[in-house]
Amino acid sequence: MTLIQNPIIPGMAPDPSIIRVADDYYIATSTFHWTPGVQIFHSTDLVNWELLTYALTQDEVNLRGTNTPAGIWAPHLSYDSQTHKFWLAYSHMQNMAGREFNADSFAMSADSIQGPWSAPIYLTSIGFDPALFHDEDGKHYLSILEWETRDGYQAPGHIVIAEVDLEHGGIIGNWHRVTTGFTTRGCAEAPQIYHHNDYYYLLIAAGGTGYAHGIEMGRSRQIFGPYEPNPTGEPIITSSPQHLFSLGDPDAGHFERFDPRAPMQKAGHGSLVQTPTGEWYVAHLMSRPLPNRPLNPLGRETALQKMRWTTDGWLQMADGSNLAKLTTPAPRDYSSPKQTHTADIHTDFTAKVVDHHFMTPYHQQTADWVNITEHPEHLRIYGQNSLFSQFNPAIMGTRATALTYTSQTALTFHPTHYSQTAGLGLYYDANNWLYVRLCQADTEDRTVLRILQAKLGKRIDHRVTVDIPDGHVDLKIDYHDGWAQVSYQLPQQAEWSVLEAPIDVNYLSDEGVNGEPGEIGGFTGLFNFIGAVDAYQHISFADFDYYTVKNYETEDLTHE
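^ Beta-xylosidase, sequence as received from the core. Prediction below:
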């Protein structure tokens, strides 16, 4: 039997929404404060996945000033077989202060998964995690979490369903409150409707997007319910199968459920797909922690579990358990001998377009600050705000996809002011990053290399410096289980030189950033980046020769 190795999409790829159209599978995932918004991945076999495109590429949303982990949440892909249109619903989470969670939800359509997508139509501000369902009678329905703000009421709220107007926006008729969850885990969210045989099935996420996360199921003969819960009273997929009662508990962390022996944590928030041969799978989020520590630098990744329907019409994992696994059976017709991952990145900037793996926090990539044609075979980045900025940092980042890897670049940079810098780094958000950069010496008489760090919003300027006489250097960061080793190589050098001792960067993780006690500080993920800063006149630029990320984890298919 051929087994798929999870995660199928490593690195920041949470809240996966999976669909199949003919012989093609697509998964959309959250992007939070990163642009372009909404990653869309593609596969023809459920085993091998590649980043295909993004949905929000035309300034449809303004993410400047976004606090972690707000932004673009839980996109939902669907396909209307009657109109042959792809639909994408998503929430723009704008505020999380005071646990108010203000989010606007929208929908877009396209004739092709690669767009162009229509202008977003407004759906609702009742909560977050919208999902569309296209019924056989031509009606369309919206399911979403209604966010609860009243004291003494079941938090985080009800799952609600309404008929939706996909031509003009908004809903038709009234919202129908259908459940606050199908188990005692609480924190019901991410509702998705499916029709199978004579039932409407409602898949929801539960337990908070932490160590008690899971996927729950209910069913009804009528789309507005009432929905009966899965008779097991437990999630159908989770990394923490022990019974849990946490109704009304707003904690999304549940650190008490962390299992230091488990390589997969936080399994939950999933969506369902059927293969052409009638096999069923659930795509769901998961995390891989640092060894023996409840810290997840890679954020929430995408995994897959094979499912089956029981004789009494309920969905369960193919092995009969509800414990998410790092391997799952591949489709019966899968014939390729090897699962391949394309998580390694190498670009030498010889193409006339920027590699589509690059993303930027808080604002779009535009020609006024990132350019691939001014200096052929180089990427030119003009310095903008400090990396502490949530508005215009000049960062080109790619998702970290392994717990051991090397990122590397070469650049030429000639600063003329002490606020002008350029280099290579690790980035979680504006308050948390590591930046090895070319800059002026404090005496403003030469160019040097040194490290600047942000930890929970505190600026840490490392004092070790190396002169870079001609402004050109190769830089390398070796990342291993939360530690970063910075090295450099000058043109006349044959070997790499270590800049300073390894730096503890385990805080660059979902649990290590600025969260409340007992809460997850974020749920985005670590990025590698090249970038530049110019808080002087926004006129300096750096030319990057290449950019490489090489992972050192083996992720091949297992054969039995």
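DSSP finds no helices and 42 strands in the chain.
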